Amino acid sequence: MSLLSIAPDSVLARSGMADKRTRRWRFALINLVWSFWIIAVPLLSGTPLHDWLPATALGYALFLWFYLRAYSVPARATWRYVPALAALGFLLAPLNWGAMVYIIYACVFAAFAFRSTRAGVLVMVLTVAAFMAEAQWLLHWAWPNTLSVTFWALAVGGMNLMYRAKGISDARLRMSHDEVRRLGASAERERIGRDLHDLLGHTLSLVALKSELAARLVESDAAAAGREMREVERVARAALAEVRAAVSGLRAPQLMAELASARLLLETAGVHVDNRIIATSLPGAQDAALAMVLREAATNVLRHAQATRVVIHLEQDAARVRLCIGDDGRGGIAREGNGLAGMRERLTVLGGALSIDAPTGCGTRLCAELPLQRSAHPTNAIPDGAQRRAGIQQVLPQVPLDPRLRGDDEGSELFDGIPDDVLPGSGR
User: How far apart are CA 184 and CA 306, in angstroms?
Assistant: First the structure.
């Protein structure tokens, strides 16, 4: 591995700052600013340059190597650079007491170098204890100087331990979120399979029987065969209408489900969500449209807004419903992208409108308004078995349903009056 290559599980990669090449090392380079104390301390104390500068320059070159490697190597190798940085501080402290910064950097990486938090804390304590022993027994530093280094080393190391714990917690939360989505999708596929089986099983069985019957009747009774085929056509058209009604709602999202998903997504990223929606009773089309608006708005807040707080509010009366999502981010939407355009088009189809107020630096407020047009036959409803059988009987009022197709054990009167030699399966 080269110096500038970043391992997938390195400290830099886990910090979330290695996702773009242009920002790859920015995070690590910013944290180098604290190393200025290595030079500032002896300069401010008036120590002659020849007493500390050569050793400090050589030590700083080694420090940069250890520092960059500790950020970029795989997690299992990070621990090697903790004692290396600490040793550098111990060796240079007699010449330049600004080398205490190396002890702090050692504690910083100790927070990420070990699987166990206890191991990280133990290494920090041992490092600081060794430094205190050197400072007091060998170098005879003043206690305030020694205690200040001890405090900052443990404080910074402790903050990094909490940062690491939060990262692990967020990763687990995201995994749980993904698992819930996966299980939900799996359950939805199973439900769709059952519904389509219930929806089409009876109808296709009837179509098959009627078609076979018509084929047997075509030579002996062409008129009866024609009637059977016309009935097959009507049954097929009824089944097609049912399938269209069923599949139109298979992927329709629900507002309350999207609200829970958006809240989990944003709060995982550290954005507080003020939810002012308790429950909804919207028609299917309006509910699905607002759910998609909320999904896109939450994604935009996460990606672009740089917000810390989001307010989600729903207003509903007898004639209309209005969903508003406001954040305290940077605002200043220069142009609408595909997401906002898609929101607007989806609302326009239902007679609604989208309004956006995004002054620069003052956050963004997005409001989606829809008229409430309740339908007696919602398109996203999948009819149950009784509704489907009733629908078929409306199409074929003169033909009773075959009990065998319902799973009954009784005989069937579907083919009464037709000679046995032309019935499906007879003579076999």
Answer: 30
> Which of 31-35, 186-190, 276-280 is modeled with the greatest confidence?
31-35
CA–CA gap between residue 156 and residue 199 (Å, rounded): 63
The tokens of 272 are what? 């507080």
In angstroms, the CA 319 to CA 59 distance is: 74
Among candidates 308, 329, 344, 322, which has minimal Cα distance to 276? 322
Q: What share of the chain is helix, strand, coil (3-state, %, to 5)?
A: 65, 10, 25
pTM, 2 dp: 0.48
Q: How confident is the model at residue 323 (pLDDT cuts 50, 70, 90)?
A: very high
What phi and psi, each to the nearest 5 degrees, are found at residue 353? -150, 155
112 or 6, greater pLDDT: 112
Residue 79's closest CA among 108, 54, 59, 101?
108
The set of residues, in sequence order, having a beta carbon less than 8 Å from that of 316 and lying 6+ positions away, is: 280, 282, 322, 372
Span 133-181, pLDDT tens digits: 888 888 888 888 888 888 988 888 889 888 888 877 777 777 777 777 7
DSSP classification of residue 422: G
CA distances from 53 to 57, 58, 93, 135, 264 (A): 6, 9, 13, 20, 53
DSSP state of 138: I
The helix (H) or strand (E) run that includes residue 63 is helix 49-72
Question: What are the start-end ranges of the H helices in 221-320?
Answer: 222-247, 255-268, 284-300
